Amino acid sequence: MHNIFKKNKVIIRGIQRSGTNFLEKILSELDTKIINKGNIERNKAEHKHFRIQDNKSSIFMDKQYFNSIYVQNIQELNLKSYNKKNIKNILIIKDPVNWVLSINRWAKKCNWISKDKNLTDDYDLMSKYLFEWDCFHLKWLQFSKDKEYLLILQWENLITNFHENLKKITNFLGVKNPNINLQISDFKNINLSENSKILEKEKINIEISDKIYNLVEFKNFRKIY
Questions:
Q1: Domain CATH for 208
Q2: Secondary structure (DSSP) of the chain
Q3: Which domain holds residue 128?
């Protein structure tokens, strides 16, 4: 049995419906300890969905994430989270069109929007969701120069280029003797029905997808639509 105190430690980050659960499952198969797992108050800096952005008025989806914590770099965020500077973070992002489709289903499940409503049918409402997504990721973009303590992955790339991204993760964390034989199909507890068929998912018309892309300033992702 591995000594848990000798495992590589990491904090996972990402807004809802970006693949944080899948990332957790991958890291659990490596010699890695995720230190921000479990029941954490949603307005705490250590929460995986913590709203890092300076523009707190952008927090719209769920007010439980509202906070008054402001940080200027990743080490300061680490201090606010766990009183230590030198902890590695992995942020997972998702193409905003893909994310809108996913958060739309999640918003209905959480009763954030009515079950007969779709974000893509309500431009003003969709804009508020995307503004929150954008502010969140633009702040992370400010931290992205710190390659030692922050690795940014894209969900779509993780699914379609799994082993390439697995190598990025193990190199970033310094995992010794990584399980390089892992396959996406090994993760039985993750619903991959939509993940494994990204390009065959429900379609969204080009006009709506263009509106979504035009609504966001954060552009550090690979377009799927």
A1: 3.40.50
A2: ---GGGSEEEEEE--TTSSHHHHHHHHHTTTEEETT-S---TTSTTSTT----S-GGG--S-GGG------SSHHHHHHHHHS-S--EEEEEE--HHHHHHHHHHHHHHTTSS-TT--GGG-HHHHHHHHHHHHHHHHHHHHHTT-TTTEEEEEHHHHHHTHHHHHHHHHHHHT-SS--TT--GGG-TTS--TTGGGGGGS----HHHHHHHHHH-S---S----
A3: 4-215
